[in-house]
Amino acid sequence: MFHTLDIIGTIAFAISGVLVAISKKMDLFGILIIAFVTAIGGGTLRDLLIGNTPVSWMQDMTYTYVILITTVVTILSKSKIDYLRTSLLLFDTIGIGLYTVVGVEKGISAGLNPIICIALGTISACFGGVIRDILCNEIPVIFRKEIYATACILGGLCYFLIQNLPIDNNVVFIIAGSVVIITRLLAVKFKITLPTIYKD
Amino acid sequence: MFHTLDIIGTIAFAISGVLVAISKKMDLFGILIIAFVTAIGGGTLRDLLIGNTPVSWMQDMTYTYVILITTVVTILSKSKIDYLRTSLLLFDTIGIGLYTVVGVEKGISAGLNPIICIALGTISACFGGVIRDILCNEIPVIFRKEIYATACILGGLCYFLIQNLPIDNNVVFIIAGSVVIITRLLAVKFKITLPTIYKD
Amino acid sequence: MFHTLDIIGTIAFAISGVLVAISKKMDLFGILIIAFVTAIGGGTLRDLLIGNTPVSWMQDMTYTYVILITTVVTILSKSKIDYLRTSLLLFDTIGIGLYTVVGVEKGISAGLNPIICIALGTISACFGGVIRDILCNEIPVIFRKEIYATACILGGLCYFLIQNLPIDNNVVFIIAGSVVIITRLLAVKFKITLPTIYKD
Known about the structure:
The structure is a homotrimer. Chain A is built from nine helices and no strands. The first copy, chain A, is mainly alpha-helical. Chains A, B, C: It is a multi-pass membrane protein.
């Protein structure tokens, strides 16, 4: 199940990359690169920071094949995708939910402090979107009004709060991931934002 | 003493990140990220390049706590910070002075050529500010008119010139760091800039 | 011969960095940094991704000396360089041709899948130019109309197609590199571009 959710997250991030790249009038190759970077950027930075090299997508071809297929399918069904924006938000949110928990668990395996593990989970979930936006000359998603990385941090905190309860590890995984997903969906639905400090 | 100066540098960089992020109207989370990236960016790239992973801030929680506290305190005392701009330049300059020498010494420990050690020291000192500026859509600090990285290079050169003299290693550290600090402060005070090649 | 071509590639990338930095009115130090980043950026990311640290340019001083000398000579002969734009395209193209094959071979040494090796070769060839353009606030070269990374991918594919033929490894290297070079030169000459998806 772990791997299935991971693939769904990769697909969702790849789709979001394709849509942004098309809106920027990039050529086919540019679209493919943005899809790839969005899907594997966060995991790559996570692996580099903890010294897990060659990085994951170089060792497991599944990611590459999934991204290639997703890109082709998304381009071919572009005219229908516009109706899918809501599903996309859902997929994307499932993606950051999952990537957060995967990142947290990688940090635990590397013997890191819980706070660092939560940071690592957040980096895994958010960095792909940040690179996508920098390459496309947009303000990075985590700096916009919408709650994004905050949801990942809450999910990571939840993971450590319930980790020592007498429940199965898969359940911990699902609950922590769900916290990310529900937090973000509620924030988007009710337009909840974090306060800013700036005063005119 | 080494660690104390290191913490002062981290605090100074975190403050500079908070101030830039506030001026960009970022939300609380964006401010925290920019503070963090500014403070640990240079050391992280240094660690990645020489293969020292997990990177330093993942192994020593002091950095994380210091940055969190600094960010909160800076936000709470924002109205007073404006009077602190001169002190900030001083702190920031102490920061690059220290990070330069720390980077040089890490390079020596890794058995690298002196020129590479100086490059590593300069990267440690400057890269946090570069990422901060890229994320905030500003021209990176090292490419602006003001002397910045040049001061780090001079400090690094000084380190190797006096390293073999019969003086204590702590003294070498202080002298080389002071060269960075004095060079930058003099350059700012007397508006010394490097020449450009561009002709209209 | 391998090393000679590698140096030619490094020189070409350094020259291209100097020219872009001058056109952005950077000071002497900014020019040097952009030259350096353009020349070693791709190889550095390649080394980080496969875990080859300290990265190559930190272990072999030849790159540093070549980049320093190239930068000085290019600045001094700036007025003549304008006549060299055509040669520059040639040098730059030789550069990506060579860096592609070097990257592919590094991937093979690390025991990676052929598709990943081709990606690694393309990253080696293109990433220096991408960082140069991001630092200079330009749209990254690989996302512009001109064929660029596509030539690298074709060269990488060619490498694996002819690799098992009964020919010398040096010949495989030359043929694959030539595919990159010829593809790009033909694409520039005949203004061949990849199609885009965007419709108004």
